Amino acid sequence: EVKQFYDDDQIREMLKNRKGRWLPEEEEYAKFLVEEFESGLSSDLEHGSSLRAYLSKKLYCSPMRISKKFSGKKVGTQVFMRKSNVLSNSLRLYESQMRQRSLVLEHKFLKAYIAWESDRINNVSSSLANSCA
């Protein structure tokens, strides 16, 4: 269990300019977000939003990082098309379940990032201590 020293806003600020390798939890969350986008049922999205912009916003990274990860998938040209303006009860339930799943995966991703960042900082600190000894 990773002890959380930051609140969610601080974590999101740390992630804002995220670069480099993708964490498995981040990839899992991204895959879910693509499925959510393609379902056309998300209430978080405006009709006509691009997949690249959506992923960039939700994963707290630059659009170019998204393009590199999803090269060949035309994420910049895919736009959100709402399936229906009037949602039936079953679609509302599905959308609610999707929203809950999204929150779980985002939390899992943020928790993994904190662990990765803590390890990185500890490794840098150890390296500095060893080089000064």
Describe, in plain words, how this protein is organized in 3D:
The chain has 133 residues and is mainly alpha-helical. The chain has five helices and no strands. Helix content is 63%, strand content 0%.
Per-chain topology:
Elements: H1 8-15, H2 24-39, H3 51-59, H4 63-69, H5 89-132
Helix pairs in contact: 2-3, 2-5, 3-4
Helix content: 55-70%
Rough shape? Answer: elongated
**How much strand content do the residues show?**
under 5%
Radius of gyration: 18 Å
Poorly predicted spans? none
Descriptive tags:
5 helices, mainly alpha, 133 residues, single chain
What's the gist of this structure?
This protein has 5 helices and no strands. It is an all-alpha fold.
